[in-house]
Design brief:
This is UspA domain-containing protein. By secondary structure, this protein is of the alpha/beta class. Helices cover 44% and strands 23% of the residues. The protein has one domain (4-141): Rossmann fold. The protein has helices at residues 20-32, 46-53, 61-81, 96-107, 120-129, and strands at residues 4-10, 16-18, 37-44, 86-93, 111-112, 116-118, 140-141. The protein is globular, with a radius of gyration of 16 Å.
Amino acid sequence: MYDRILIPVTARSFSREIDPSFANQLKYLVQAHPNASFMLLYLFEPRDCRWLAAGLPNLDPDLMLSLAAHQLTRIERLLRDIGAHQIEHQLAVGNQYLVISQLIQKSGYELIVAPWQPKWWQRCWRRLSHPAHSITNDLLILNVQ
C-alpha cells in the first residue's frame, strides 16, 4: 500500500535523538513493503533562513549544512541496515507543513515518518511540567486522495 515514504528532517532535529521505536517501526514497514522508496527531505525553515541572513555569529551556513548531512547520514545508515534499497534525498526551503503538503499532493506520498524524540532531559522536563501529555512518536498516516 505504501509506495513512497517521506522522512522530514529540520534544524530542530539537531537537538533530538532518533527514537528507538522508530527503528522497529521502520523495520516492520520495510519488511511489509520491500519495494517502498524513501525520501529523506531536509527542510530549511524560514526561521533558519532569517537567522542566516541576519548574519548571527553562532550560525554558520557551512556548519548547518554539515549538521544536516550528518542527520541525513544517520537516518540513511539506519534505513540501509534494515534493508531499504531506494533512498532519495531532497533539500527544500520553506514552512515544513506547507512543503510536506505540497509534496504529498504532487508526488502522492502516503506516509510520513517522524523519527525524532526529545533528548532525555527534554522528556523529563516535559513530564514534570506537563504530566497529562504523553510523549509519543507514532507514524502519522495521511489520507491522500
